[in-house]
Write a structure and sequence with these properties.
It is found in: Cytoplasm. This protein is of the alpha/beta class. It is built from nine helices and 14 strands. It has one domain: Ribokinase (UDP-N-acetylmuramoyl-L-alanine:D-glutamate ligase), CATH 3.40.1190.20. Helices cover 31% and strands 22% of the residues. The structure holds adenosine-5'-triphosphate and potassium ion.
Length: 301
């Protein structure tokens, strides 16, 4: 049984780099292509697997195709347990990403991720019940997230909810989760009637807003606190948020306080932006321990 369960999306990212984008009916030559495992759920599970091999289980689904097989192999290589990843008669989730002129165009095909529905669950609930923390995002149906969060609350299991991409229903999750980690845009969508300061004060040690290169802001129960990002030679910020969430969840289950867990996750995401791809730069625990901002008082089993 694993300490942490991630329920969420799994995808293959098909990345095309081009200097021209075709008009309707036109064909152009692109520059380069790469295929990398992605999906917010999968990325967060891999972030945890790197830090704590075999202490994280993924619940989700892939299709009966070559992408599905390759994704399962990747999970196993990264320390993520896959007993609860179903293979369903759909295509594996795919994100078709076109990068041009420092901008991107993305088409997401949810495919198998649409079938992550709790109505059919059996052993999945047992895995969750035996864990300490469940990590959720917004790339599986909202109804599934709601059912899981309610179950966790009834059974005393902590929930870390990363509400991305933002949905109008996100605020419904608030009473049932322990930590919610939107970025600035997602936090505005979550609580549109409150300023950032008001929102943070309303949910102390629970609402943790990530601000990209500006770091993280939260309320510690007494006042608003900011944990600055650590300056980095940035190669690719893709996956910074997923690394942050995975590392934060791992640190919380290891007994760190909210502020310490934020600091730990800040080191992890700082390391992650220095490598290409969402999963490419996710650090091991050893790599974090070598960082100058690692605190000697932090203890991991
Ligand atoms: N350029 C950067 N340099 C150093 N740290 C960074 C940088 N960008 C992000 N981070 C770290 O990663 C954390 C999460 O980043 P961010 O707020 O961009 O999340 P996000 O919007 O969910 O990211 P994404 O969707 O791109 O993965 C930040 O709080 C910060 O600690
Ligand atoms: K990266």
């Amino acid at each position: 049984m694993s300490k942490i369960v991630v329920v969420g999306s799994i995808a293959m990212d098909l990345v095309t780099i081009t200097e021209q984008v075709p008009e309707t009916g036109e064909t152009v030559f692109g520059k380069a292509f790469s295929m990398v495992p992605g999906g917010k759920g999968a990325n967060q599970a891999v972030a945890i697997g790197r830090l704590a091999p075999k202490q994280v289980s993924m619940i989700g689904a892939v299709g009966q195709d070559a992408f599905g097989k390759s994704i399962l192999d990747n999970f196993t290589a990264q320390g993520v347990l896959v007993d609860e990843v179903g293979t369903v008669p759909e295509t594996t989730g795919v994100a078709q990403i076109t990068l041009f002129e420092n901008d991107n165009r993305i088409i997401v095909i949810p495919g198998a991720n649409k079938t992550v529905l709790t109505d059919t669950w059996m052993s999945e609930w047992d895995i969750i019940k035996a864990s300490q923390l469940v990590v959720l995002q917004n790339e599986i149906p909202h109804e599934s997230n709601m059912a899981i969060a309610k179950y966790c609350q009834e059974n005393g299991i902590k929930v870390l909810y990363n509400p991305g991409p933002a949905r109008e229903t996100d605020f419904q999750m608030l009473p049932f989760v322990d930590f919610i980690t939107p970025n600035e845009h997602e936090s505005r969508m979550l609580l549109p009637h409150l300023s950032l300061e008001e929102a943070l004060a309303k949910y102390p040690n629970k609402l943790i807003v990530t601000l990209g290169a500006e770091g993280v802001i939260f309320h510690n129960g007494q006042s608003i606190e900011r944990v600055p990002a650590i300056k980095a030679e940035v190669v690719d910020t893709t996956g910074a948020g997923d690394t942050f969430n995975g590392a934060f969840g791992f640190a919380i289950t290891s007994g760190l306080s909210v502020k310490e867990a934020i600091k730990f996750a800040t080191i992890a995401s700082h390391l992650s932006v220095q490598k290409f791809g969402a999963q490419g730069g996710m650090p091991t625990l050893e790599a974090i321990k070598e960082h100058e901002q690692y605190e000697k008082t932090w203890y991991f089993e």
